[in-house]
Amino acid sequence: MLPDGKRLHIFLRSILGIIFIVASINKIYDPKGFALIIQNYKILPPEMINFVAVTLPWLEAVCGFLLLTGCFVKGSALILDILLLIFIIALLINYNRGIDISCGCFSLSSDGTKSIFHYIIRDLILLGLGIVVLFYRPGIRLQR
Fold this sequence. Notes:
Blueprint: H1 4-29, H2 31-41, H3 46-69, H4 73-97, H5 116-135
Helix pairs in contact: 1-2, 1-3, 1-5, 2-3, 3-4, 4-5
């Protein structure tokens, strides 16, 4: 039987992996739609938009799959944490500009039902989860 900390780690990394796999699906199937979302952020130069629209979803999917399977957990968690930081910064830049855009995370539609603030909070929670997965050390306990 696994110790409680190890079970929690498996659960958390599995949740994070599933979230990124699900988030990548629409972007993989519709890179043109995802490219439009990226363009709306007005951060990347036009020459990079298509490259990012094609490669980023696959990076998310592969890292999510690796977390789910337990392979290369630290590296995958580090990559996803860096991506989450980039996403948060991009959202904050547009929040500061007064632009309320669709984040493009799970849907490529721009329904506008959620604010940038909602996406920032969600990504901060996911980043916290990713940090826990990244820095988990089996056998370390807080003792007095």
